[in-house]
Write a structure and sequence with these properties.
23% of the residues lie in helices and 42% in strands. With 163 residues, the chain is an alpha+beta fold. The chain has one domain. The strands form 2 sheets. It has a 6-stranded mixed β-sheet. Strands 4-3-7-10 form a 4-stranded antiparallel β-sheet.
Length: 163
């Protein structure tokens, strides 16, 4: 009986179950080189699930056997689910890389050629919302020591901000 109780307690942990689905996006304008520096933190297991579902590849994130093109596939997924517009014009960005911190993956993005004279943005962040109904994506956007933020969810994955 003790074994069964222990098994039932440990079973959800063995599948990496967690109670909440959340990502954090930190965006900061760098006036020295007119770029947006973006860091996105999400649960590694959730990202891996979404990437493997969309690519049909076993990427094995955060392991010795990680797929050599994991950053590429991460970038392809982000292009479908993370958009930035300045003054109604889409901004291209590049994935600088990613790293792991505990159960999370940090993905680093840079947007070049930000027009400082008109700091109006719209952001769409639907990361992981296609796989997790409860997914919440928090955004903190900082420009010139002012921070504005939003909490996005399925059906409300866009945010408009002006500085």
């Amino acid at each position: 009986m003790k074994f069964l109780s222990l098994f039932l307690i440990l079973l959800p942990l063995s599948f990496g179950y967690h109670d909440y689905y959340i990502s954090l996006t930190e965006m900061e304008y760098n006036p020295q080189n007119a770029t947006l520096e973006i860091s996105i933190r999400a649960f590694t297991e959730d990202l891996e699930f979404a990437l493997e579902e969309s690519t049909l590849l076993d990427l094995e994130l955060n392991s010795e056997r990680e797929h050599p093109q994991a950053t590429y596939y991460l970038g392809e997924y982000f292009k479908k689910h993370f958009e930035i517009n300045q003054n109604d014009s889409p901004k291209k960005y590049r994935i600088l890389g990613h790293e792991y911190e505990g159960e999370a993956t940090w993905t680093y993005i840079e947007v070049e050629k930000i027009q400082e004279e008109d700091l109006n943005f719209s952001i769409r962040n639907s990361l992981l919302m296609d796989y997790f109904e409860e997914q919440t994506n928090m955004i903190n956007f900082k420009i010139n020591k002012k921070t504005k933020g939003a909490i996005l969810s399925k059906g409300n994955s866009s945010f408009e901000v002006s500085f």
